[in-house]
TrEMBL record:
Region (Disordered): 1-21
InterPro entries xref list: Betagal_dom2, Betagal_dom2_sf, BetaGal_dom3, BetaGal_dom3_sf, BetaGal_jelly_roll_dom, Galactose-bd-like_sf, GH, Gly_Hdrlase_35_cat
A Pfam family of this chain: Glyco_hydro_35
Keywords recorded for this protein, A-Z: Glycoprotein, Glycosidase, Hydrolase, Signal
Family assignment from sequence similarity: Belongs to the glycosyl hydrolase 35 family.
Organismal lineage: Bacteria, Bacillati, Actinomycetota, Actinomycetes, Kitasatosporales
Entry EC no(s): 3.2.1.23
Organism: Streptomyces avermitilis (strain ATCC 31267 / DSM 46492 / JCM 5070 / NBRC 14893 / NCIMB 12804 / NRRL 8165 / MA-4680)
Catalysed reactions, semicolon-separated: Hydrolysis of terminal non-reducing beta-D-galactose residues in beta-D-galactosides
Domain of life: Bacteria
MF term (GO), any: beta-galactosidase activity
All copies of domain Beta-galactosidase, residue ranges: 387-560
Signal peptide segment: none
Protein name according to UniProt: beta-galactosidase
Compositionally biased region (Pro residues): 10-19
Amino acid sequence: MYAAATAPTGPAPGPPAPDGRPHTVGFDQYSLLIDGKRVVLWSGEVHPFRLPSPSLWRDVLQKMRAHGYNAVSIYVSWNYHSPAPGSYDFTGVRDLDLFLRIAAETGLYVILRPGPYINAEVDAGGFPGWLTATEGTARTSDPTYLSYVDEWLTAVDRIAARHLFTRGDGTIVLYQVENEYADHVTSPLGRDYMAHLYAKVRADGIDVPLFHNDKGRNGHWAPGTFDTGGETGRWLYGFDGYPSPSAPPPDWGYFGVGGVKGGSTASPRTPGFVPEFGGGWFDPWGGAEFDGKGYAESRRTRDAAYERRFYLTNLANGIKLHNVYMTFGGTSWGWLPAPIVYTSYDYGAALDEARQPTAKLVPMHQLGHLLQSVPELAKLDRADDVTIDEAGGEGGADLGIKGIEGIKAYHLVNPDTKAHFHVLRNDTSDDRRVSLHLDSETSVTVPVPGLDARLIATGIALGRRRLRYSSAQPMLWLTAGRQDIAVFTGRPGDPTETLLECASKPKVTVLEGTARYAYTDGALRVDAEPGAAARVLVEGGGATAPLLLLFADDEASARLWRYDTPSGSVLVRGPALLRTATVRGTTVHLAGDTVKDADLEVWAPRGVSDVVWNRRTVRTRATASGSLRAVRRLPGAPKVTLPALTGWRRQAENPESAADFDDSAWRTADRTSSYSTTPVPTGGPVLFSDDYGFHYGDVWYRGRFEGGSVADTVSFSYVTGTQGLLMAWLDGKPLGTHRMPVPDKKTVRKGTWSATATFPVEVRETTDAGPHVLAVLVRRMQHDEDGKANDSHKAGRGLSSVTFNGASPEVSWRIQGEAAPDPVRGPLNNGGLYGERNGWHLPGFADGRWPAADFPRSERRQGVTWYRTGFRLTVDPEVDASIGLTLTDDDPARAYRVQIFLNGWNMGQYINDVGPQHTFVLPNGVLNTRGPNTLALAVLSDGTTSSGPGKVELTLLGRAAGGVPVTLVDSPGRRN
Ligand code: IPT
């Protein structure tokens, strides 16, 4: 007979809270130990800087907690907070303190990752623009660099230190230094740098374990590889994994080649830790990664089944700290995106860019709740290989863990409780049925769909009872009121068998759905088909409390919400989301979302008789399941109608191109040396914009020279990221536009984009005595990342040199980029277009005298044209409408691009003939959903084709009744 396990384990520790009490955060080779208790971190990556509306942080974090995550991992991007050396801004949308407070209030642990280098597909990998113009090599022990790093860490640590779980003031439990740092691993440049970071962070009062994320399982920066002040026990090893979704998932630890027991890492004394594991992938400009299909394809290729296959493989290999990059990708608004990516950073994540839950949340929900209810999972050893065979096939042969063709079986045991776990993974695309031999007499048959995986448990505690085994996957158990509840999941209609240890024959009632049961051999066997409502009540049989068994299919499981309150656990069934549950007296107050009409059923702590949903009392009746069930269904979200965008006004700009434009206030480009990694032509001058304090967006140059000798061409060498372009004029007449080539999958990672644009010059123009004026606009995109620690973020941006063929006049250059950074919207909001420098993008700008314009537009012109309009929204305050702006054009070859400003906030860049992005998410808060809004479009047209915009429309990306209260983000108009 299948061996029963030893004494039950108590419930897993509940969600963290900032309770003002001291806590300990430690670890052993198995897991984190928080206040001495094992916790598996089931974390998701979110970047606060990719959601510039603090109210919505709560929305995303509440969705994560509801769906079973117990932690959030965040990067903090140095550039986002620092417009200049010595200047650090954590206000408004940059309020890190507020984010950390909300995370704590939501009951999520925080993994803080402030760099200094973060990569993350952001401008310069997170380095501030100004750092690109400083001496010394970044990401090394160079003293100049370290002095800036210390500035940044001092600023960010001052906030972090107020939110440490150890002090009870917040929920930060882990802190990362550097990011995938792999290039100076054995050199003092790197070792001293890492030691410096370690010492600095400790000196700033950060007392939680620190770690680094190795680029792969290389053992880089494992404990003892560099100086951590003797504190090897407070340094964790982590490695990142972005395996190909089309190959079988790799084994990292217990089952890996040379797998190191006790860590599933290269570091045997620290727990298995993946600080980043692919939850999607990014898409470059042009959409080369996903064949132009965009993030929908990222989500399709890394879908729910991918999550089950890869993440269950991770758990089987001993990973106990698991962070999915990304869980909510958000938006690389303004000039935040690294040149490789476009505005959307949706990533194909479980929560989409418009904050909408996707089917990818279902496995996260099932496994997250499981990890939090079943503490046996926090301490696992590899167990003996088991026998599996194809159900209905020949069977029985001892095939070992390789098992049958295309099926992989992992077997693990908790050494203390002897609970066993099996992961069955199907690497073929056919649906399979696998018989798993639990011992010589017992086997279960489990359907494992093609390219999917299942978890099977034996011997786990289910409240006051114990599971012998089940062919259904356990999802959670809790105690609500006087009974225990256990939820199992499976595919709709698949037969499952579940055996509970029972000392004597229990009383069994099938409450809903169909189920059969029998008592034999000290166990109750229940056969049920998971669905919307299969439930069985088990009473007596040797246990002191009833156990309600629920068998839910995927859809039903994602409508089951566990919420642990200080007064006890609550389980809610029905609505699209449960955000919070609070017990006060005899009432449970619930807040959440509905999309369609929904049931509401609540299992609440003892003594609760009344239910409030979103501040309204709900009439309920008590059920035989021990729940309170709403008499009427909750209403879904009402319709949301969006206005058409009309009333556009238009104004062309680029006065800078005119011969007589007054540039006397511009900076003279007279520098002769630069810290850029791009060589400066001998004799100079330096023309890189960063050397003159202009770090983001467009930059203008005007060069004055005397004529007299005959030139036939003029050549501009310039450096940008991908999608850079250059437009030039001579004496006010267009010379032409040059664009960097659109990269493909291979060339996109090439880094710096540089090119030389050569335009013919009319003889008359250079033989005239002059003076002549060259005017050049460079859209230089952003700084490269510095993934290889070779200062690639310091590659020049803008013009590098200008030469004439047939003449060599002396040109004196002036340069103009962005005006002083917007103190509210931050340093990355604006570039140096005339309109931006003069507030054309801001609400309240007086455009009344601009001529009216209709879309679609068709005009051929080299230069910049602005369009503005206003629109008013009247979304019901109790509805969360997620809205986007969609730009389309009947002719995808028309060469123009649009910078989108909503209420002055730069929400991204549309490139008509590159794509693939057409819809730009407008986050509520920046978007006023109950009042007026100002939209401004800055259109750059090449002059080689006619230019749009074509169609510009608001699009509804999702709606729910409920949501979070949204405070408008400050959106000032023109500053005086
Ligand atoms: C890993 C980085 O750590 C992270 O910042 C991000 O850039 C991510 O990749 C890709 O989105 S780097 C790893 C893929 C080599």
